[in-house]
Amino acid sequence: MPAPSRRYRASARRYVLTALSLALIAGASPARAESGLVDVNQLPRLPGAQETTDSQPDRVIYTVQGVVPSAVRSVQTLMTDNGWMRYVRPLEETTSGLLFKKGGYGLSVSFTQALGRPDRSAVYYAANRIYADVPFPLGATDIIYDERRPYFGCTAPGSIDANLDFFNRELAAAGWTPLSADDARTRWPNAAIDDKIDNGARAYFRRDDRDRQSPIMVSLRRLGDDKTAVDIRVAPFALPQDLRAGPDMDGLPRPDRIVTAGTTGNAASEHREAHATVVAEMPAVLAFYRRELAARGWKEETKGAVVTPDEASLNFTAPEETGALKLGRKYDLTLVSFVMQVTPSALAARARAKKQADDDFMKDAMSMATELIAADNARRAQQSTTLSDAPLHAQAGKTTPIPVPEGAENVEFDGSDGKLEFESASSVKALAGFYRGALKPLGWKTQPTVINNPNMAALQFSKGGKSISITVMQMGAKTNVSANGSGLEMADAGTNAASDDQAAAPAAAKPLEAEPDSALPVPKDHTLSSITTGTLPGSDAPFRRELEASIPADLASVLAFYRAELEKRGWKEATDHAITKPDRAELAFASPDGPAVLKLGRQKNETTVNLAQKIPAAAAKGDVLPKPGQSRLMLGNMGPTDATITINKRTIKLVAGAGGPQSSQHPALDLPPGKYKYVTKVAGRTGKSGQIELGADDAWGLMLGPDGDVLALQAY
Questions:
Q1: Would you say 627 and 110 are in contact if contact means Cβ atoms under 8 Å apart?
Q2: Nearest CA to 511 among 521, 519, 523, 501?
C-alpha cells in the first residue's frame, strides 16, 4: 500500500488538530487576567531569572541556574516569604509541582529541565482559579486543600476558641452565615446537626441558595503544644444519600459523583480491577454498589463481610467470577476497590470454547482457502488463454545488461541497485524460454530451481562470480518479470548519479531568499510548502506550528539558510544536541515563544524540511500542555459506533464521536515518555494493534476511524 502523500498528511493533521483542540476546550473557561485570577507577571521571580516567552496575564515561563530540585526549594521559600501559603490536593501528596494560595487567589508552579540545558531549570507560573474559597489560618501547616470543592485540612496554631473565632470572622466576611439545627432540618429533613465532639468543637455554615454552594461543616480538635487540627468539608447531610449511576466501566458500575475512576483489564480478562474515589459518605457508596452489583447478577456473600463506619469489605460471586469490594475513607472521600477473578471452572470452560472456536476458524479458513485457490486457478487458466506462447526476440538498442524481449511494457531499470522489471502480454512459458535461450550465448549458466509451472517460473543464472535471479509470474491478463542481482549492476550507475548531483549543484549553490510573509521561514524557491497550526477556539494564537517543505537545493545550503533566518528571529540553537550529516540534519532551538526542532533530509535530489515549534503559553490555556517531563495522549473516536483502546494496561471506552467538537467526552492520558503498544476494538470487527512513541513534553492524538484504524498525529 503506498504511503499517503505529504499534502494528504498535512490536511489530515490540520483536521485532527482542530478536532482535538475543540474537544479539549469545549465547555472550559480560558484563564485570562480577570477577576479571581492573579496577574503572574507581578509575582516575584528567582534571582537571575531569564524569561523565555512573551508575558501573558495568566502564565509566565522563565529559566534559572540550577537543577530542578533546587529550583523547587527556592520557589517555595520565595513564595512563602511573600505571603503565599502552600497546599497539596487530597490524594496528590506526591505531585512534583507546587500549589499556593493567597487570599482569594491561586497559583500553580511547575518545573522542568530547560531545553538542552541540564544545568538550568524552567519555572512555569500559572494563575489558578479558586472556586471554593476557604480562609487559611496564619501559620497553618500540613495543608490539604481542594480549590474545586470546599475541602480543607491543616494543623493550625492556637486554641480551639481562637481558631473558632477566626473562622467565624473570616467566613462571615466571605458571605457565610451560621447554620442552626432548625434551619438545616427545614432544608434537609434528615439533617443531623452534631456540634459537640470529643476534645473539640464543630460549627456549620451556609451561603445564600443562589450561590449554589453546599453548607460546610467546620471541625476543630485539640492537639498538643497549643495546636488545633482543622477539618472543613461539605456537611454530610447535604451530600447525595442515593447515588446515581454514571457510565459503566467495562461492564462495572460507577457512581456519577467521582473524583477519579479507572479499570485494569476488561470483561474478557482473567483478573481485573476497578477503582474510584467518590465525594460521598460511605453508607451511600456501599448502598450504591450493593444495588448496582445485584442488578448485574452479582450475589453478596455473608461470609467474611466487614462493615464499620470507616471501612467495608464484602465478597460477591457471579456465574463465572468472584469479586472483593473494599471501601475506605480518607479526607472527605470514599475510596473504592473492586477486584474480580474468573473462577477455575469458568477458565476451563473458556479454554474449551476458545479451542473449539479456533478449530472451527481453521476449518472455515481452510475451506475458504481451498475455494479461493480453485477459483484463482480457474481464473488464471482462463486468463492464460489470452497470453501468447509465441517465441520472443530481444529488443534492439537497449542498454540493460541483459536482453529485454520485444513487447515489454513499463520497463523500469535501476543499475545502481541491480534491478529490472517489466510487463508483457506473453506467457510465463514464452518468457522463461526467452531468457534461458538468450542468456546462454552470453555465458550465463542456468542453476536449477524448484518453481517452474504455467503460472510462475523462477530462474537462476551465474557467471564469473555474479548472479541474476529472474521471477516470471502471471498477473491477471499480463505477465510480470522481475529480475535482480549483481549481474544487473552497472559500473557507471554511480557515475551517472554523481553527474546528476553535480548538475544540480550550481542551482543549490545560489543564495536562498526567504518568503517575506511566511509565519515560519521558507525559501522562495520551493516545490512544496505547507504550514499547519493548532489553535484554540475563539483565538488566533497557535499552540503549535509545523512547516513541511521541499527545497531544490543541497542540504548544506538549506541548513545555512535556516540557521541565518532563525537567528534573525531571535531563535537560539542548542548546539550540544545538533546532528549534521551529508544526508540529514536535526537541530533544536529555543525560540521566544517556546522550543522548536528543525529536521532536514534528502529525497529525489531535493532537501526536505520539517520545522515544528511549540508554544507552551497558548497550549496551557487549552489543557493541551503535558505535565512537565510527561507525555499527553488525547483519544478520539470518529466512527459511528462505540470502541475501546487498551494502552499501558488500561482499557478506555470511546463512545461514538468521543473527542470530537460535538462530544462531551474528551478522554486523555498523561504518561511517562516511551514506546506504548495499543489495541483497538470496534464492535463486530477484529481488534487491531499498533505502537506509538511519546516524547517528553509532547502531546499526541490517537483518532480511531470507523474500522478501528488509528490516525496518530502530534498535537503539541
A1: yes
A2: 523
Residue 182's alpha-carbon distances to 216, 236, 501, 646, in angstroms, are 16, 16, 92, 53
What are the pLDDT digits (tens) for 367-407? 887 777 777 777 767 766 778 888 889 887 777 899 999 98
**What pLDDT, on a 0 to 100 scale, did the predictor assign at position 32?**
36
C-alpha to C-alpha distance for 311 and 325, rounded to whole angstroms: 11
Query: Which of helix, strand or coil describes residue 34?
Result: coil
**CATH fold label, 258-342:** Protein Transport Mog1p; Chain A (3.40.1000)
Rounded-to-integer distance, Cα 33 and Cα 39, Å = 6
Element (H, E) at 106: strand 105-114
Question: Whole-angstrom Cα distance, residue 704 to residue 716?
Answer: 19
pLDDT in tens, 44-84: 999 999 887 655 767 899 999 999 999 999 999 999 999 99
| pLDDT score recorded for residue 664 | 53
What pLDDT does residue 538 have?
55
pLDDT at 501 over 70: no
CATH class of 6-27+622-714: mainly beta
Interatomic CA distance for residues 488 and 469, integer angstroms: 10
Instruction: Please give the angle made by the CA atoms of 361, 366 and 368, to the nearest 5 degrees.
Output: 95
Amino acid making up residue 487:
G
Q: Assign a CATH topology to domain 511-618.
A: TATA-Binding Protein (3.30.310)
Please state which of the ranges 205-214, 515-524, 552-561 shows the lowest mean pLDDT: 205-214
Nearest to 333 by CA among 409, 419, 234, 441: 234
**C-alpha distance from residue 475 to each of 384, 412, 421, 430 (Å):** 10, 17, 13, 15
DSSP letter for each residue of 550-595: EESS-HHHHHHHHHHHHHHTT-EE-GGG-EEETTEEEEEEEETTEE
419-477 residue pLDDT tens? 999 999 999 999 999 999 999 888 999 988 878 888 889 999 998 888 999 999 988 88
pLDDT recorded at residue 10 = 43
Q: Side chain identity at 652, as an amino acid letter?
A: I
pLDDT in tens, 281-317: 999 999 999 999 999 888 999 888 999 988 999 999 9
CA pair distance 420, 415, nearest whole angstrom: 8
Distance of CA 155 to the CA centre of its chain: 40
> So where are the chain's domains?
6-27+622-714, 40-238, 258-342, 511-618
Find residue 602's DSSP bridge partners. 607
What is the Cα–Cα distance from 637 to 563, expressed in whole angstroms?
40
Return the SS3 of 641.
coil
